[in-house]
Amino acid sequence: MSITEILSVERNEEWRALLRKSMKASERTAMERVHMPEVPAEERVLSHVEVNAGLTLEQATNEAKRCLDCVDPTCVSGCPVGIHIPHFIKRIETGDFAAAAKVLKQTNALPAVCGRVCPQEKQCESQCFYTKKMQKIPVAIGSLERFAADWERESGNISVPETEKPNGVKVAVVGSGPAGLAAAGDLAKMGYSVTVFEALHEIGGVLKYGIPEFRLPNVLVDVEIDVLKQMGVEFKTNFVVGKTASFDDLRNLGYEAFFIGSGAGLPNFMNIPGENLNGVFSSNEYLTRVNLMGASKKGYDTPVLSGKNVAVIGGGNTAMDSVRTAKRLGADRAMIVYRRSMDEMPARAEEVKHAIEEGIEFLTLHNPLMYIGDQRGRVTQMQLQKMELGEPDRSGRRKPVPMEGSEFIVDVDTVIVSIGVSPNPLVPQSVPGLDVSTWGTLKVDEKNMQTSIPYLFAGGDIVRGGATVILAMGDGRKAAAGIHQYLTSKKKVAATTY
Ligand code: FAD
Ligand code: SF4
Questions:
Q1: Do the Cβ atoms of 433 and 468 come closer than 8 Å?
Q2: Ligand nearest the Cα atom of residue 124
Q3: DSSP per residue over 294-318, as a string?
Q4: Strand, coil or helix: what is 349?
Q5: Beta carbons of 483 and 171 less than 8 angstroms apart
Q6: 477-483-486 Cα angle (round to 5)
Q7: Cα–Cα distance for residue pair 409/371, rounded to 1 Å
Q8: Which of 16, 169, 418, 436 could covalently link to 314 via disulfide, CB atoms 3.0 to 4.6 Å apart?
Q9: What is the pLDDT of residues 212-255, one digit of tens each?
Q10: Which helix (H) or strand (E) holds 14?
């Protein structure tokens, strides 16, 4: 059923009349946006407690009242998985929180995750009527999504989406990040027998090993994965496709089609002197050690030094996560070194605000030239150079230009390089004839995410390079539909539309 059909059936005239009677549009637009309560900065830096505390029932109901239930809800077009936004928000307004959660799950397998980490200000909320037509602060769609998903989980009555009768056809998903999980959920709904193969010992991809507990507690990801298990999705961990078994081996085991969601886990470095010194990490390694391997706890085999002078190179979400983690591990001086200015910083505004509140130092318009070590090969200092902004480059952002003679030395005992990621070449290299771009990403047909090999579909960061959770999920869903169409055309399953 299309979005328009669902909306026309369930939000009929009777429903609208009821809402119009409850409150006038002018009363709704006069209300102030409710702000999510936060744990105070001085308290939260002492542990990994979640920073955003979630809306109370009263706050959520009030915020839901701001939604105008637009006839043409433009916010929906801003959501890469097409959540029926006014529809779930109106359920919150009327106090039917279980129904709100159910609406979310029709199109989004991970609402508690997306409500927390989606860059809503650039997606759904940027398309809200308040933003577009009234120059007002948009409805807090992400906070409401989080509220409905959390309410359902805390009620202990988690709904599991219905699945079709098993059709006996096996489909493999490579990688258990958001792209793989979204594809697996949709394929299971269609009745496929789905196995997700994951290289690591934990399921969840970056949601588990990258994004820290203080933004996204791992236990929430587990609850959403458990729903997929209840839908019949099977997970095999410690299984590296391309090493543990090849695609051909898996085809011989009866897998008819594959979704590749292997992400972009290969960190980029600057290739400057001293990057091999001890104490210089990539963000991936640093965060994985802390988030997945217990590095911040006593008695674990994979510790990270609790650096006192920590420099994080970069200005994206990953850099903010790394520097705020270092602060929580006891850094006295935790600094961001970024070659452009605050205005060009790619991290979400909320993350930058939280970092500033937590005492993170921002060395903007600075770039490292080299790292200097002691006799034991440990990093002790870095040489920085000041930058100024020149003409806009191809990305439209003003290009940072080095200022000659501005070099200086800063003491550091830990450096975390966070300047972007590339796809791990293992999967692309393990399939002869697979079309790969010059950046190492997989080339796909954007309509259905099919690669140059007909039975292989792909999406998420392996196709886009480092992007976002919800874009990865949108790709996973599109690929699931593509796989269904492919298997239908091969007469492996009977034709059905979803
Ligand atoms: P991933 O999440 O990377 O998952 C890929 C999985 O595939 C991994 O588990 C990997 O182990 C597995 N794998 C790889 N190769 C194989 C193989 N050969 N066999 C089996 N398994 C394999 N996005 C946001 O929207 N909001 C944020 O706030 C945000 N913060 C971020 C913070 C950090 C620290 C990082 C690193 C990223 C952040 N992102 C954020 C980006 C977002 O997490 C990614 O875009 C998203 O996770 C990509 O999803 P994916 O499924 O394509 O890949
Ligand atoms: Fe907005 Fe993300 Fe929720 Fe979609 S999934 S409605 S983009 S917060």
A1: no
A2: 2
A3: -TTSTT-SS-----SEEEEE--SHH
A4: helix
A5: yes
A6: 145
A7: 9
A8: 418
A9: 999 999 999 999 899 999 999 999 999 999 999 999 999 999 99
A10: helix 13-22
Q: Which atom from ligand 2 is nearest to the alpha carbon of 76?
A: 6
Give the pairing of strands 456-458 and 255-260. Answer: parallel
Residues 6+ apart with CB under 8 A from 84: 3, 6, 7, 76, 103, 106, 107
In this structure, what DSSP letter does residue 246 have? -
What local confidence, expressed as pLDDT, does residue 438 receive?
92
Q: Which helix (H) or strand (E) holds 29?
A: helix 25-29
Give 313's strand partners.
337, 417
Mean pLDDT of 114-133: 93
Cα(223) to centroid of ligand 1, in Å? 18
Q: Which residues contact 456 (CB under 8 A, 6 or more apart)?
A: 247, 257, 258, 260, 431, 434, 450
Q: What is the pLDDT of residues 195-209, one digit of tens each?
A: 999 999 999 999 999
Ordered domains of the chain (ranges, CATH): 3-155 (1.10.1060.10), 170-265+422-489 (3.50.50.60), 269-419 (3.50.50.60)
Q: Which of 367, 345, 365 is nearest to 355 (CA)?
A: 345
Using 50, 70 and 90 to split pLDDT, how confident is the model at 111?
very high
**Which residues have C-beta within 8 Å of that of residue 156, sequence separation ≥ 6?**
none
Q: Is any atom of ligand 1 closer than 6 Å to the C-beta of 111?
A: no
**How far does residue 3's CA lie from ligand 2's centre (Å)?**
15
Question: How does pLDDT run across 148-161, given as a tens digit for each residue?
Answer: 999 999 998 888 88
CA distance 448 to 263: 18
Q: How far apart are CA 218 and CA 228, in angstroms?
A: 16
Q: 88 C-alpha to center of ligand 2: Å?
A: 12
Residues present in the chain in total: 498
